[in-house]
Amino acid sequence: MPASILIVEDEPAIAELVSLHCTHAGLAPQVVHAVLDARDIVDEKLPDLIVLDWMLPDKPGIDFARELRRDERTRDVPILMLTARAEEDDKVRGFETGVDDYLTKPFSTRELVARIKALLRRAAPETSDQVLSVGPLSLDPIAHRVTGHGKELKVGPTEFRLLRFLLARPDRVLTRQALLDGVWGDHVFIEERTVDVHVRRLRVALEPAGLDTMIETVRGGGYRLRKY
Ligand code: CA
What is the whole-number distance in angstroms between the Cα of residue 225 and the centre of ligand 1? Predict the structure, then answer.
């Protein structure tokens, strides 16, 4: 699934250009021209990253960034801020707010896409195309292949996404809710025990390589992919 990029930019030419380059880079961009519209989209479904212009018609982008950082649900969404040269002095304030990166206009779109990809890799390794490995367990998102000790394993589509999410966060306890949000998407109303069903299926899929025990149940916590 391509990473979703919300572009909040009121200058149509820039918005169009950024959107086009995101599409070419295999990302899924969506353009809005004001904070109010961005808010609607974020409330509906969290994007993987937000490209946020500083000067917007309804309110400053930096205020929106601040709001997002205050809310637990939206706190971790990477934000790349676009600023005009005149706003340069305000950058420090931007970083204090928790903006992850910024670019000054005019910028090279190649540079912008590189920055977006770097932020995505940092925030959500499972949305990048890199092969994820923990010990003898490996997942290739492009070839859509899972191997254990070099042996190819048959993994269903949901279990594939689940494993990709886990491999990107080895040794971390992930609650059922965190797994639901990360694998199924937030605002999707699925019962938490659905996670258990798919974890069980994933273990069965890993069994032929003897790696089913890598997925641990953490009592009262959730699940953890242990380091091998
Ligand atoms: Ca603007």
Answer: 44
